[in-house]
Each structure stands twice: as C-alpha cells, then as structure tokens.
C-alpha cells in the first residue's frame, strides 16, 4: 500500500512538529518553506531523515500531496495554496492534523486579546492537579507534544488563522475571550469574516461540550443570537449576574456550574486590571469544570507570574516605571494597557498598522499620556492622529533611541510604556524581539 503523502508548508515550530508526528504515523513527509528554515529546525529534520527544502516551493513535490498542513503565517491567497485548493487537496492547520492522534481532553482558547494570558493562566491552574500540556500558538508544538509527552489534557491557544484550517477539530471546552477588529488584512477587510473565523472553535461542539465567552462583548453576544451553537454556554461578566457561568459581585468572582457554586475574592489577584479579572474568570471556569478545588484555584490565581511582553514591569529607574507590553499588536490590547496606567505615561507606539482605528484610545491619551514616541518605518498616521492631543510627539526607528528620549522626558512617578498597537515586522523580527530590545535598552540606561 502506498504511503499517504503529507506536505508541510512552513518549517517553523508547528511545521516541524507536524513533520515529526506525520513521520511517526507513517506518512511520506515533505517540508517546504518559501523563506529560510532556522538552523535548529533544519537539524531536527535532518536528524529524523525528513525531506525538506527552503527558499522555494517546488510545485511537483507539493501538488502530489494527499493532505497539506499550512503554517498559520501563510495567507490562503498565496499562489501555491490556491493551486492546492483548486485541486481539492485538503489544506489544514497543525491543530486539525494533530488533534486526530490524541484522546486527551482539549481546551481551546481564542480571541483577539487575552488568549495567551488566559491559556497560560488556565494551564497554571490545571497543572497543580492534572497532567496537562500548553500548546498551539504558544510554547512547543502541539503535534510534537503528542508524540513526546502524550499529556491527558491540552490547553491550546488558537489563532483565527489556525481555526481557518480546521475540519473536524472539536475541543471539549472552548473559550472566546473577546472579538475586536484585528488582522482584517487577511479577511478582505470584512469584520464578519473574522468573527466567523473565531466562532469556528465551536463549530463541531455538541451539547456535551462547553463554550466559555465574555457576555459583556456585544460582538460575541450578537453573533450568538443570530448564529446559535450546540455547545453548553458558560458566559462570564463584570456587569451582569450570570446564572450558569461566572460574574463579579463587588470584589468576588462567583462561578456557578450545574448549581455547584464557588466564590473567590479578587483582592489578591496577581494580575492587575479589569481585563485580567475576565481572564481569571475564564480560566477558573475551566478549572471548576475539571473539578479542581477552590483552594487550589485561589492559590494559583494569587501566585501566577503573568506572560512575558504583556504589561511586564521591567525596571524602576529614578522612580520611573518601564513597562514592556510588546505583545499589544492591536488597538484593543493597547486599550487595556492604557486603561490600567495609574500615572502620567510616555507611550511608545507604532509598527505595521493593520488598518487601525485609534479613536477608542482618545480618552486615555487625553487623560494619561504626556508624550508619544512613534517607533516605526511609517509613522504618518500616528502623527496626524495624535499631534494635537499631546505636548510632545517624536519619531524614531531605533529602540535604543526611543528609550533615551523617554528617559529625558520622564519625571519621577511617570510610566514609560511600550504598547505598540501594531505588528512588529517593519523594524523587528517579531514582538518578542521588540520586547527584548526594549528591556535591553532599559537595562543599559
């Protein structure tokens, strides 16, 4: 019998992990990357005798596939993907490919913002008691963990691009943290397309599965009214009383599932800000569903360290607090960051604009921001938007210079906040690189 051919487009973390799982399951595997594959991934492919190419896509070796796993960074619009679709060859994501090879309980988390924090926090709550992996858009590849670790539970952070490539994927528990316009360049600038993409996380769920979501998010609640799902719904809210799900009563989170109620004070939460109360509600609801004790949940919420590059307090120098929020790659993420500032703020912003509308930030900028440093190749839109709102607005293309300017402008008691509201690819490798450069520059002051 001829082996099934698995072709993988993109030789990064998800691509190489899928290649390892594919080989283990008896596929004839080929990895193709239009760019250069990193040395550490090349070594893994060579060591495992998996055929690969980089800096090109050889059509004859790709169009004979039975199934293709596409890295989430590759848009559907590229020529090779369009050719595959025309030929009727399934093009799927790593999440779809890997999920069929595990019987583990899957917890899938998506949303425009908060998904990394919610996924990390959920994993932190569950790992005290359960055998659980953390994968998807975060950490080691899901596919690789299935062969190497074989966890009984997985918390998966899933982007809309990964959800676009699912067919049968069905998490036992799904979370949608929120939906705000993001990545619209990949969705024909139609917000509806992007919303539909996020809701694919629940498309295969039945009444025995659960969907946890933000009931204060009008985009989510309106979509559910007109596009009902089969899942058992467990909403969370800061403003409404929720019968089945989680809500905030003064300082207490109250979670009810099938008349089984727990309540916990928010006064000692390790993470600050309203949005983090929501992240805590979502994660705690999962923990409550999976029968983790209240005491364990409470202790875990109080000792959780947070996520690197997400409102990360770096250093205090001359009574000025430097905060790294490089992970804020869209306006809504920056909204949360500015909302949580409690001192005059020097805001470092800019990068690749994905069709941003900065209007929702105006009240915070007027109230809290004393200076803006634009850090991008093209800062035209930022300059024209904010020039009349702050006394000082400057632009630079170097992180080290941005930090020196901030240092000069800052007074004791101020915050210097890197919260770019944009993607990083114009000046940096990725948001992690941008965040690390910020931290290095601060430490070198």
TrEMBL record:
SUPFAM superfamilies: MurCD N-terminal domain (SSF51984), MurD-like peptide ligases, catalytic domain (SSF53623), MurD-like peptide ligases, peptide-binding domain (SSF53244). Residues 309-422 form the Mur ligase C-terminal domain. Pathway: Cell wall biogenesis; peptidoglycan biosynthesis. ATP binds at residues 111-117. Keywords: ATP-binding, Cell cycle, Cell division, Cell shape, Cell wall biogenesis/degradation, Cytoplasm, Ligase, Nucleotide-binding, Peptidoglycan synthesis. Residues 109-287 form the Mur ligase central domain. The keyword Nucleotide-binding applies. Gene3D superfamilies: Mur ligase, C-terminal domain, Mur-like, catalytic domain, NAD(P)-binding Rossmann-like Domain. It comes from the Bacteria. Cell wall formation. Catalyzes the addition of glutamate to the nucleotide precursor UDP-N-acetylmuramoyl-L-alanine (UMA). NCBIfam families: murD. PANTHER family: UDP-N-ACETYLMURAMOYLALANINE--D-GLUTAMATE LIGASE (PTHR43692). Belongs to the MurCDEF family. This is UDP-N-acetylmuramoylalanine--D-glutamate ligase. It comes from Lacinutrix iliipiscaria.
